[in-house]
Structure formats: structure tokens, C-alpha cells
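Supplementary Methods, section 5.1.

A reviewer requested that the exact input to the structure prediction be made available. We therefore reproduce it here, unchanged from the version used in the analyses.
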Amino acid sequence: MNNQDLLAVAKEYGSPVYVYDAEKIEFQYNRLTKAFSKVNDLRIHYAVKALSNISILKFLNSLGCGLDTVSIQEVKLGLEAGVDPARIIYTPNGVSLEEIEQVTKLGVQINIDNLSILEQFGSRHPDVPVCIRINPHIMAGGNSKISVGHVDSKFGISIHQMPHLLRIVENTGMNINGIHMHTGSDILDIEVFLRASEILFEAAKNFPDLEFLDFGSGFKVPYRPGDIETDIEELGEKLTERFRNFCRDYGRELTLAFEPGKYLVSEAGKFLARVNVIKQTTSTVFAGIDSGFNHLIRPMFYGSHHEIHNISNPDGKQRFYSVVGYICETDTFASNRRISEITEGDILAFSNAGAYAFSMASNFNSRYRPAEVLWYNGQAHLIRERETFDDLLRHQKIIDLEPQKQD
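The structure derived from this sequence is encoded cell-by-cell as follows.
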């Protein structure tokens, strides 16, 4: 997609609007599979929570990608998209036993991350194959809110609880067919990831009937020019060697699985917003746009960086702007950022808007959630309509109320 393509999308579908480039998603998927091409059986499960539009799920399914889900709703979306249940893994956190049992009936791979539910599920369903999520106690991730493998994390069963875990498995006679880990997002150092993988290999030796090892994901993508990213080719070479050695020692070939979300869709996404007002104070020039953290909360929630380009005036003189939204709380997308000169009515494009962007959008301030567009084969395809006022009222119940009489 070039600037003219994006401007045409904004003109046709209005702003704000999310646009996803199918070609970039496919490129990232192929890059990952190529990096691990020497693995005999590689399985990629896309993390649905990153971007759950059903057209995106159908496209990834067409590439041969499975799904990583964290809720029964995501499982059902995957099935609706035509994904084979055998290629869906369900990795919830803190959900009820009842939900896990409902998902079991849908035929997907269950992944359990706490001892209490593991024992209850194993006692009631010993024949259902279960994967176990291990917490390797390895700190990874670019932000404390997305680091999930550390010692005080709510995710996974502590590697130090292995004796307790094994007693549960023995007492229930349950079928453990996979071991899983996820250290966190935005992995900067592959050596940290490899150290965690060695812990997973060691844990796997306790289970004689494994079919796969799932290494999660968290691969970092660049957010600005020259930014560091996970060296997926180096990781592929080093982890493949370790995995093949493990399979040889284990006595048979296993499946190597990953669960990338951001890695596949982040760079494919652009968020387009129109500038409503230029406001200059004594020290700052604000560019106020027709959106806010109700549509893109990552900068406020994670402190994430999104490159912002004025695609209406890409070659204009560079000036410094603070890009802000219209929410009646502080919602700053960028402070004192160098951007081509902005005038009211210009369209700004936010990069890396494919992951955890629309999927975290809300109706805060009773604003409508934006449209979504997939750029596929050189054409724009609407994959979600912009919400309307009727959507805000759709599930509300209006009742007649009268003032209470005062004695």
C-alpha cells in the first residue's frame, strides 16, 4: 500500500479507519516458516487476540496457519472462519472449568496453566489430551505488562511445581500430549528465549507420550526506522538444532509449535485519522485528530511507539507536533514528534496498527468503533462496517422510570 492507496481508503470509507495489508501478513508468515524449514513438523498458531476479524482468520487459514485462542468466543470465531479444530489450541487464563469443558466439546487442543484446574479437569476427563503451560521463570518482554514468564506471573504452572504436577498426572491418569511456554512479548535477546527453551526441554522429559512442544511467541517487530527486532533467522537456526537434538534423545519426532500474533499482523496495519484542529499553546503545537484511546489505546496503555506520517503532505517541511485525541481525558499518541507540516483536514497514518489495536477498541465516550479494511490483491475490501448509533443502543433495554415520591 502506498500513500495514495491509503488516502483513497480514507476517502471511500471515512476516518478513522483501520487498513491491513494481506501481502505483509503473508510475507511475515512465510518468513517464519522459512526460518524453521528444517523442522520436520512445524505448526504455526496465530494468536487471535492480536486481531480477531474473521476475514483475517480466513486469510491466515488459507496460508496453512492454525489458531491460538484464549476464550471460547475466539474458538468459535476460528471455527466460523473454517479452521480445522485440530489446528486450534485453547490457552485460557483464569477461566472457569465449565468454559474449558465447553471448549473440549468443540474438539480443539486444550492447554491448562494452573494446578487446580488441571486436577479437576484430569479427574473428570482423563482421556482428553491436554497440553500443560509451564512458567519457566524467565523474564522476557519489552514491557512489564507483557512479560508473562517471570516468577511472579499469573500465567503458567511454575517449573518448581513439577513434582506436584506429576502427582496430579499420575493420580488422574490423564493424557498429556504437549508442553507449552510463553515468556512475553517483544523478545529482544534470543539467548533468553533459548534459555527458556532448555527449561522446556528438561520439563518435557517427564512426559513419555508428547506429540508437540509449543514455544509460544513474543517475537519483536520494529516500531521505528532502525529499531531492533527479533532475529528470526538466527533463532530458527539455533532452536531448530536444539529441537532436533531433543527429538533424537526423546526417541521420536515431535511437532514444533509457535503462537505468533503481533509478529504476523502488526506491521501490516495502518490506522488512518483525520486532523480536526491545530492548536498552539505557549509551548506546544497540538494536532487533534478524530479519534482517541477508544480506538488505539496502546500508546496510553503500554507506552508503545507508533510512527505517524502525514500522508496528505508527505514531503512537507518537518515540524514538531503533539498528536492528541478527542477523548475527555489525556489521550496523547505522540509528544513533540517531528512530522511533515500538518493542516486541518490532513490524514495521518499510524504504523504498526495491526496488533492489539482494533481488538482493544471500545465505545468509550459513546464513540463508534471504526471500520476495518483489508488491502488484498491491490484492492480495498471492507471487512467491518463502521458502527452507527443503532449499534450503541442494540443491546440496551430502555425502561420507563418515574421520580420516586418523597414523604
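The chain has two domains: 22-265, 269-388. These observations are discussed further in the main text.
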